[in-house]
Specification:
Strand content: under 5%
Distance between the termini: 65 Å
Order of helices and strands: HHHHH
Number of helices: 5
Helix content: over 70%
Shape: elongated
Keywords: Coiled coil
Radius of gyration: 31 Å
Length: 190
């Protein structure tokens, strides 16, 4: 025979199993009810929206997608332009013998600008373009950072360059432009 403690444990185990089974059944019922409500809502919407209204809605969504695409292209182009300006300034203030180290970054940024302009002219839906814009902007930012790093490494004491205050102001302005462009594009990608 089972002792009182064993019988109690056995009853507790059965109770837990029954509770789990009831919870599973309730969860399944809730899921079924939710699916039924969603189907009913979809059917009601289908009966409420006429073909003409559906066409107008689709057109509105397409216009919104084009606007988002154009905004993303503008932000990306602004970043690429700021990065190009930074590379040009860095090349002008570096030693003549070391300017070649900035050429790859400058060329890459120019190619990115052309690519962004082509994407902006296409005006395809934003859902198909935003991932590409994000990748392009990251590449542009990386190229700009490489250009400025190379310029800093190339600069040496005694080389003619812009006054320190003016140079610092330009760098701060370029950094602000880049950050604003990145924030705008990130907001579109959320």
């Amino acid at each position: 025979m089972l002792s009182s403690a064993e019988r109690l444990r056995h009853l507790q185990q059965q109770l837990r199993q029954q509770q789990q089974l009831m919870q599973q059944q309730q969860q399944q019922q809730l899921e079924q009810q939710q699916q039924q409500r969603q189907q009913q809502q979809q059917q009601q919407l289908m009966t409420l929206v006429t073909p003409a209204e559906e066409t107008a809605l689709r057109s509105c969504l397409q216009q919104n997608a084009k606007m988002e695409t154009a905004a993303a292209a503008t932000a990306a182009a602004a970043i690429a332009a700021a990065a190009t300006a930074a590379a040009a300034t860095a090349a002008a203030t570096a030693e003549p013998g070391k300017r070649h180290s900035l050429a790859p970054a400058t060329t890459q940024l120019q190619q990115l600008q052309q690519q962004l302009q082509q994407q902006q002219q296409q005006q395809t839906p934003a859902t198909l373009q935003l991932d590409g814009f994000a990748s392009t902007v990251r590449t542009a930012a990386a190229a700009a950072a490489a250009a400025m790093t190379a310029a800093a490494a190339a600069a040496a004491p005694g080389v003619p360059r812009l006054p320190q205050q003016q140079q610092q102001q330009q760098q701060e302005q370029q950094q602000q432009q880049q950050q604003q462009g990145i924030k705008k594009l990130e907001a579109l990608l959320v």
